[in-house]
Amino acid sequence: MLFRLPTFSRRSFGSLSEREVLALAISSEEDDARIYRDYADGLRPDFPASAAVFDGMAVEEDGHRAALVDLFRSRFGEHIPLIRREHVKGWLERRPDWLVRPLGLDRVRAQAALMERQARQFYLTAAQRTSDASTRKLLGDLAAAEAGHEARAEELEREFLTPDAVGREDEADRRQFILTYVQPGLAGLMDGSVSTLAPIFAAAFATHDTWNTFLVGLAASIGAGISMGFTEVASDDGRLSGRGSPLKRGLATGIMTSLGGLGHALPYLIPHFWTATAVAAVVVFVELWAIAFIQNRWMETPFLRAAFQVVLGGGLVFAAGVLIGSA
User: Fold this and answer.
1) Where are the domains positioned within the chain?
2) In this structure, are residues 269 and 210 in contact, taking their beta carbons and an 8 Å threshold?
């Protein structure tokens, strides 16, 4: 369980003594090393080369911590007080990586860059507040080291991220994106676009009442979105399948299901029945071809085969709705 101190119980950075500033620097370096190792551990199964880069960055942070500990011992003794980022006002908190797994390459790299900028700013500010020459020099050196971490990261990337490794990792990242967002979203769009055709057009041709048809479409779309979203979340937690966060998949499925149905329900806000029906039919055509395009673009299904399957299925459901409503 995470515990966040209320703002009023935190210390301001300006109120910290040199001893406390050094203790904060030590704990921060330790935390950063752990975060980089967590990143490496989370990336290793799919992105081993990038994991090696973060292993190297963790070693760098270990070296910074060791230098700070030596300085602290020489000035203040063996006992290092426990003071962390969350105890200081204005310090940006960092979420544990287990809250955001599976880790994405772009997200992790952006977070690492932010960490380095924060650390550099911390050391520059801390150096201005110390009167001890050796402490000021070390903090200045650490600020420069944090600024140079981007270059160090590039060196590690050149060492471990060969063109073949980059290609494999890009493909793994693309696969994860498809499994977490594209596949669930496509399933939702197909279900929302096709399954709601029958009730919407049945209601339209049975009543010739555009407002009631819209209400039927709205209820069918939102109900289908909620149902599909919860089904996706409950069906797979992503641990064994590697499909990613169930919440993200559920949101992708639910939102796309609702949008798929609302696409041809919204035209019935037009008061004239045949105008609304003509617009809705055009929207259905666009939806079905969009599904075929996504299948071809992301699922590598031949376009003509995808179009035939989707248009045939959608056409049958559309015809069923019209026939039932006209009976």
Assistant:
1) 7-161, 169-326
2) yes
Q: Report the mean per-residue pLDDT for the chain.
A: 77
288-326 pLDDT, tens digit per residue, is: 888 888 877 777 777 777 677 777 766 777 677 667 767
Q: Kindly state the tokens that stand for 233.
A: 């979340």
pLDDT above 80 (res 21): yes
Express each pLDDT in 152-175 by its tens digit. 555 555 555 556 655 565 666 677
Burial class of residue 262 in the structure, from the number of CB atoms within 10 Å of its CB (0-12 exposed, 13-18 middle, 19+ buried): buried
CA-angle at 39, arms to 36 and 43, nearest 5°: 145
Architecture of the 7-161 domain: Up-down Bundle (1.20)
d(CA 253, CA 186): 7
pLDDT for position 1: 36
Main-chain dihedrals φ then ψ at residue 247, nearest 5 degrees: -65, -45
- Helix, strand, coil fractions of the chain, as percent rounded to 5: 80, 0, 20
User: Distance between CA atoms of 46 and 115, rounded to whole angstroms?
Assistant: 23
* CA 199/CA 313 separation, integer angstroms: 15
Gyration radius of the chain's alpha carbons: 28
Q: Which long-range contacts (CB under 8 A, 24 or more apart) does 205-208 make?
A: 205/321, 205/322, 205/325, 205/326, 206/324, 206/325, 206/326, 208/273
